[in-house]
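Many introductory courses stop at the sequence. We go one step further.
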Amino acid sequence: MRRGVGRAAGRCGRRRAYAAVLLGAPGGGKGTISKYLVRDFGFEVVSTGDLLRAEVAKGSALGREVEGLLKAGALVPDEIVLDLVKQEATKERLLLDGFPRTVSQAKALDVTVDVAVKLDVPFQVIIDRLSNRWIHAPSGRTYAYDFNPPKVDGRDDLTGEPLAQRDDDKPDTVRTRLETYWANIQPLVDYYDLELNVLRSFAGSESKVIYKEIHPFFQRQFSSSSSPFS
């Protein structure tokens, strides 16, 4: 994969100051990296999940439609998601998290992407991380045996009730989800890499370690003569 980033940027869409796409598997630390980028560079994160939940909470006509789809276990149509994301696309420093997921979505979004940041975290690291996660189902309290273990093994700290592991967090399930994710996202990765030349990959096992490479990359982006912030 190419290490450079084409400063002409991908796709001749609407021009804001800067736009980045964050690509990474579930459990791979995207949320943590997003928080760091918001803190250090003033990015505004656009998460499709957050946008959809906000519409549902507002009780709008669109929100009611989305709620019905979600309750039925159906996917929200691209047209709805695209409309919501486009409304947020005027942000000065835009960070897209969780969207686009396909090449057709990327083209339909019509947003000029300056860089697509790909987080390469080994499968086994993510499997170990998620399989260490246990919950107290009635309250939603979450424990992780590697950094936030319960005081008593297998028991909730407040109630003493037994903890459970979600089916989604079991090792075999996590591995299947990861394989499916990368198989589905690979065409988009290739699009950003080979066609637009805006892909930048960062590898590591911990978010803090990966961010030590991401931080200077964005410092260079924003201080270069071709940067919209210079």
